[in-house]
Amino acid sequence: MTTPSTSLDIGGLEAVYDHLAQAIDTAGEDKAELFLVKLALLNAQALGDAQLFARQVDAALRDL
Length: 64
Known about the structure:
mainly alpha
């Protein structure tokens, strides 16, 4: 199992959030779900660890 060697600070997380929100708006309501699935798969591939990705998915589902 691999873990990321670095993490984002608050400023980095805010920048990621802003870019993601803009990308979702750009994709449009009819393509937002497809965009998010593609983004998740690309990030899973970049992460390189299916079990870690599954834990991240589970964490994102909590407290929706």
